[in-house]
Amino acid sequence: MVSIRTNLERLQEKIALACRKSGRKESEITLVAVTKGVEPSRILEAIDYGVKEIGENRIQEAESKFSLLPQEVRRHLVGHLQTNKVKRALKLFDMIQSLDSLKLALGINHRSGEKKVPLLVEVNTSGEATKTGIRPEETLDFLRKMAELENLKVLGLMTVGPLTSDLTAIRKSFRTLRNLFEQAGRLNVSNCKMEYLSMGMSSDFEIALQEGSNMIRIGTAIFGPRN
Ligand SMILES: *Cc1c(COP(=O)(O)O)cnc(C)c1O
């Protein structure tokens, strides 16, 4: 049985080291513990050891677990969201990191009402056909379209790196997102403010931190392998 506490300590050391190597401050990095497939009792354990933000991929799983967690934990949706589940997602999550189509943006804008939900635009930086996300070359235009959807609050960009051991390809993917993040920051779209650059998972967060990520999403390195 893996010790969540030990895993978190090791992870913090690695984050600290990666930050030191690239002249970053640890305090600017937000850790999102990805809890898909993890039982509430183990999520609570991670929270006891200092986890403040969690990420889930599926609405139904989040619905069954979130009522068992303390109110103050910040909840991120990191998996693809179907338009017909927007209403449920808005009830559950503090941030939706997987805004990946205009249709979904329209759906969220229509449903969000008074509560503006923070969103990240997911970009498919690897070009892998199995991944969702806006194409890099269409991302800035997509953000310009968000200006008309006044119930949205876009706070940054998110990507999932390519599934490969080719470190150059992973770095290239993260660099693409970083460049878009900087260009988007200069766009001046009223409801888009580039605060969060969400990239890096258990196998590639050190590269992501070197490439400027300020939000990493970590599952396996905290909770062990999923079944
Ligand atoms: C599962 C998942 C993660 C965490 O992956 P690990 O490799 O277990 O750290 C991060 N982001 C997204 C979008 C995920 O689906």
Secondary structure elements and pairings:
Blueprint: H1 4-21, E1 30-34, H2 40-48, E2 53-56, H3 59-65, E3 74-77, H4 86-92, E4 95-99, H5 102-111, E5 118-122, H6 139-146, E6 153-158, H7 167-185, E7 192-198, H8 205-210, E8 215-218, H9 220-223
Parallel strand pairs: 1-2, 1-8, 2-3, 3-4, 4-5, 5-6, 6-7
The chain binds pyridoxal-5'-phosphate.
Structure description:
The chain has 227 residues and is α/β, with parallel strands linked by helices. It has one domain: Alpha-Beta Barrel (TIM Barrel). Helices cover 39% and strands 18% of the residues. The model has no long low-confidence stretch (mean pLDDT 96). Bound molecules: pyridoxal-5'-phosphate (PLP). Pyridoxal-5'-phosphate binds at residues 34, 36, 57, 78-79, 160, 201-203, 217-221.
Give descriptors for this structure.
binds pyridoxal-5'-phosphate, 227 residues, single chain, 9 helices, alpha/beta
**Which second-level CATH architecture applies?**
Alpha-Beta Barrel
Quaternary status: single chain
β-strand amount:
15-25%
**What shape does the CA trace take?**
globular
Q: Give the domain tally.
A: 1
CATH class assignment? Alpha Beta
Summarize the amount of helix as a percent range: 25-40%
